[in-house]
Amino acid sequence: MKKGMIKVSVVYPNSAGKTFDMDYYCNKHLPLVGSLLGVSLKGATVEKGIGGGAPGSIAPFAGMGNMYFDSVEEFQNAFGPNAEKIMGDLPNFTNIEPVIQVSEVLV
Asked: Are 98 and 90 within 8 A, CB to CB?
């Protein structure tokens, strides 16, 4: 991604009793999000947590999705009208409340 783009990170904190279906997330949720956000979405990545900083520790996040947009306004205009559908799909793959961060790509 290039400098100045907007990155929207959706992270799913990991802890005991939390579930996250990575197969559903990758194969059903992400295509849904992509179809709803359309051409405003310039790219996306998915990460699966496999461990923490200390050997043998659990990953602080079960998963993470990153979406890239040209501007905050493009993100808001694409996500806002579709937020209910996107957020409504969460119970199909997780019982974790996601944390969302909007960042500017610097490098």
From this structure: yes
pTM of the model: 0.94
* 12 in any annotated domain: yes
Q: Look at the chain and report how many structural domains it folds into.
A: 1
DSSP 8-state class, residue 48 = E
| CA distances for 85 relative to 9, 32, 73, angstroms | 18, 9, 19
User: Is 1 within the bounds of a domain?
Assistant: no
CATH number, domain of 68, equals: 3.30.70.100
| Cα atoms found within 13 Å of the Cα of residue 54, Cβ hemisphere only | 2
pLDDT tens for residues 15-30? 999 999 999 999 999 9
